[in-house]
Amino acid sequence: xxxxxxxxxxxxxxxxxxxxxxxxxxxxxxxxxxxxxxxxxxxxxxxxxxxxxxxxxxxxxxxxxxxxxxxxxxxxxxxxxxxxxxxxxxxxxxxxxxxxxxxxxxxxxxxxxxxxxxxxxxxxxxxxxxxxxxxxxxxxxxxxxxxxxxxxxxxxxxxxxxxxxxxxxxxxxxxxxxxxxxxxxxxxxxxxxxxxxxxxxxxxxxxxxxxxxxxxxxxxxxxxxxxxxxxxxxxxxxxxxxxxxxxxxxxxxxxxxxxxxxxxxxxxxxxxxxxxxxxxxxxxxxxxxxxxxxxxxxxxxxxxxxxxxxxxxxxxxxxxxxxxxxxxxxxxxxxxxxxxxxxxxxxxxxxxxxxxxxxxxxxxxxxxxxxxxxx
Length: 375
Known about the structure:
Blueprint: H1 4-8, E1 11-12, E2 15-16, H2 17-32, H3 34-46, H4 58-82, E3 92-96, E4 99-102, H5 103-139, H6 145-173, H7 178-187, H8 189-195, H9 197-212, E5 220-223, E6 226-233, E7 237-242, E8 247-251, H10 252-257, E9 260-262, E10 268-277, H11 283-299, E11 308-314, E12 319-328, H12 332-352
Antiparallel strand pairs: 1-2, 3-4, 5-6, 5-9, 6-7, 7-8, 10-12, 11-12
Helix pairs in contact: 2-4, 3-4, 4-5, 5-6, 11-12
């Protein structure tokens, strides 16, 4: 007589149809609702951080956590499904130290591998979220040093989590004695330190930057003939956005050893140049030109009162006027616009008074000699 129960108990390859049904059902149900479960657990986990993260929406937290939680759930679903089967997973794969290692032991190690990886990934994403919250709070303050500190602590925390994860993998999955490994690293620490001398110097350089604060993120600096804005300070290097908008990476060791000029800390940019007038310019015209340039400098809203224009000296082919002024510190492109504006204005002043700009010239005098011939 046909019975569903008898049908489910039919055995094929060491497993009953019921076991196969559970295997397929768990996989199907798990993968169909994988994204739903991951978002649910992400929102559930968000409640732990809700008190101090009111500035950042829950959607950002879910966006960061959904992928690593999916990996964790996927590994759990597959492991749970495989647990429903008996054959061939309990057959002996190899012998080691008088112990039989089965296929299921290998699957168990793989499961622990993905569990540790996914948990590490989740912790790293939580660190990113916490750093995002503190970065937002730091952006509300006047100082930029706390913005820089948040990024530094985030990187430090992530490195520590990765190191802990590696030791967890070595101990749980590969069954390596972690204490013995750490002791071995301690013995070989001197050799490692010598091999990683530059990296350690750059690491200490990063700590020096955070303690002394010669600059912070957003400052305009000049080091090793490189001028640009500080984008990021990491453990090993500092990223600078140059004036031509490219990213330049300098080792932290170089940032503290070389002469560094923090252009943000100065109030004004100095502009100094010389213009040459032709020698046919009359003295009264020179006085008017110098006077109008001085008036232009002193009346400009973006300059201080220390600018000056003077009749400097007599050049080889021109009357030389020295122009010096200080532009209030601002965006580099605004600075270029003001320089251009001043150059046009000075050109108009010179042309208005009937003079012109000199350029290298040479005067050649021909002397004709008359010779008398006597017949």
